[in-house]
Design goal:
Layout: E1 2-6, H1 11-22, E2 26-33, H2 51-64, E3 68-72, H3 74-90, H4 97-116, E4 121-123, E5 129-132, E6 138-141, H5 159-162, E7 165-166, H6 174-183, H7 205-210, E8 218-221, E9 227-231, E10 258-263, E11 268-272, E12 279-289, E13 297-303, E14 311-318, E15 321-330, E16 338-343, E17 346-357
Parallel strand pairs: 1-2, 1-4, 2-3, 4-7, 8-11
Antiparallel strand pairs: 5-6, 8-9, 10-11, 12-15, 12-17, 13-14, 13-16, 14-15, 16-17
Length: 358
C-alpha cells in the first residue's frame, strides 16, 4: 500500500512512519508548512509546526530512507484555522483550533492531495483505533492508551475519510513509543510533547486576539444585570474563567465569580457563582457522523474537551444538528466547543455547541 505519513517532527509521527515501513508499505513522509513565517511558531516543548519540527521530521525520514517533502499549506491554514479562531472569539465563542486543523487541513486538504497523487491512505501519529468490518465500513474507537487517546479531535471525520486513514499507534502506550524511537536512533525519542496553540508563539492568546480585534470597553454584569465592573473587549474572556475579572463589587457570599456567558451584541460579560456554570442541555449545529447518520434518540457519552471526562447523556438528531441532554449537569461548557458523541469507546459523531441551557 502506498501511504503518505504526515510527519509533524514529533516522536509519535516518527514511530508511526517507522511501523508502516516495517510492515512493508511504500511510505512517503510529508511535513506541513502551516505558517507564513515558520520562525514565529512555537518550537521545542511549546508547540508544533516550527522550522525546528520540519528539520526533525526530515532527519527521521532520512533514517528510514523514505522520500520526504514539505507541503506549503500556509494560506489554507491561515484562512481555515487562524481566521476562524479570531472570528469565533469575536462572536463570543470558544473554538478548538487543533480540531479545526484536523478537519480542514490534515484530513481534508492533505488527504485530497494525497489521493490525487496516487496514495492509498494517509497516516498520522494520532492515538486512536480504526476497526474494519466485513461490510467494508470502518469504525473509530478510543486508543489503547487512555491517557493519550485523541479520538475526540478526530470526531469530525466521515466514513470516506476513515477508510483512507491509518493510525499505527492505536495499540501502544506512550512510553513504548518513546522506547521504539530510542531503539531506532531517532533524535526525537525524548522530545517533549507539543501543546498549546501553535500559531500563538508567546502563549499570549489575549495579546494575539488584540492584534485582530479592536478594544471595545463594556460592562461586566451579574445575572440580574447589575454592573460589577468593566472589560476592554469580550474576546478577552471565556466561559468558566475566574481570574482577571477585576470586579469592583464583591459577591454577597464572598465566593469567587466566574464567567457564565459572553454577549458580543450587547458587549457584556455575565458572571456568577460556580454553581451557575452548570448546564444540563446543549443545542448543537453542524453534526457530522463517522458512519451512517443516527436518527431518533439514543444513549451514550458526551465529551466536550480533548481530555475531558465523558459525561453520560441522551442524544437526539435535530435537522443537521444535535440535542444533548446530560444525566447530571456539566460545568465549563461554552458555545463554540465541539461535543463528540461516544457509544462506549466508539465515536459516533460530533457537533459544534451553539447554545447551552440549565
Amino acid at each position: 500500500m502506498r501511504v503518505l505519513v504526515a510527519m509533524s517532527g514529533g516522536v509519535d509521527s516518527a514511530v508511526a512512519a517507522a511501523r508502516l515501513v516495517a510492515e512493508g508499505h511504500d511510505v512517503t513522509g510529508v511535513h506541513l508548512a502551516l505558517s507564513r513565517n515558520p520562525a514565529s511558531y512555537r518550537s521545542g516543548a511549546r508547540g508544533c509546526c516550527s522550522l525546528e519540527d520540519s528539520h526533525d521530521a526530515r532527519r527521521v525520514a532520512d533514517k528510514l530512507d523514505i522520500p520526504f517533502y514539505v507541503w506549503d499549506f500556509a494560506e489554507e491554514f491561515h484562512e481555515a484555522v487562524v481566521e476562524d479562531f479570531v472570528a469565533e472569539y469575536r462572536a463570543g465563542r470558544t473554538p478548538n483550533p487543533c480540531l479545526r486543523c484536523n478537519e480542514k487541513i490534515k484530513f481534508a486538504a492533505v488527504l485530497d492531495r494525497g489521493v490525487r497523487l496516487g496514495f492509498d491512505a494517509v497516516a498520522t501519529g494520532h492515538y486512536a483505533d480504526l476497526r474494519h468490518h466485513d461490510d467494508s465500513s470502518v469504525t473509530l474507537h478510543r486508543a489503547a492508551d487512555a491517557a493519550k487517546d485523541q479520538s475526540y479531535v478526530l470526531g469530525m471525520l466521515n466514513q470516506d475519510q476513515l477508510r483512507r486513514c491509518l493510525f499505527p499507534l492505536h495499540d501502544v502506550e506512550k512510553p513504548v513509543v518513546r522506547e521504539e524511537a530510542n531503539v531506532l536512533g531517532f533524535g526525537v525519542a525524548r522530545k517533549p510533547d507539543s501543546h498549546d496553540i501553535c500559531f500563538i508563539a508567546d502563549g499570549d492568546t489575549q495579546g494575539f486576539l488584540g492584534r485582530y480585534i479592536d478594544e471595545r470597553p463594556g460592562s461586566i454584569v451579574d445575572a440580574a444585570g447589575q454592573v460589577l465592573g468593566e472589560h476592554l473587549g469580550t474576546h478577552r474572556y471565556t466561559v468558566g474563567q475566574r481570574r482577571g475579572l477585576d470586579l469592583r463589587v464583591p459577591a454577597p457570599t464572598g465566593e469567587p465569580r466566574y464567567v457564565l456567558s459572553i454577549e458580543p451584541v450587547s458587549n457584556t460579560v455575565v458572571v456568577g457563582g460556580r454553581e451557575d456554570l452548570a448546564v444540563g442541555e446543549l443545542g448543537c449545529i453542524r453534526a457530522t457522523w463517522t458512519g451512517e447518520p443516527v436518527a431518533g434518540r439514543w444513549r451514550g457519552e458526551a465529551q466536550f474537551r480533548a481530555h475531558g471526562i465523558p459525561q453520560p447523556a441522551s442524544f437526539e438528531a435535530v435537522g443537521d444538528g444535535l440535542r444533548v441532554t446530560f444525566d447530571e449537569p456539566a460545568s465549563g461548557v461554552a458555545p463554540g466547543q465541539t461535543v463528540v458523541a461516544y457509544d462506549d469507546d466508539r465515536v459516533v459523531g460530533s457537533a459544534v455547541i451553539a447554545e447551552t441551557s440549565r
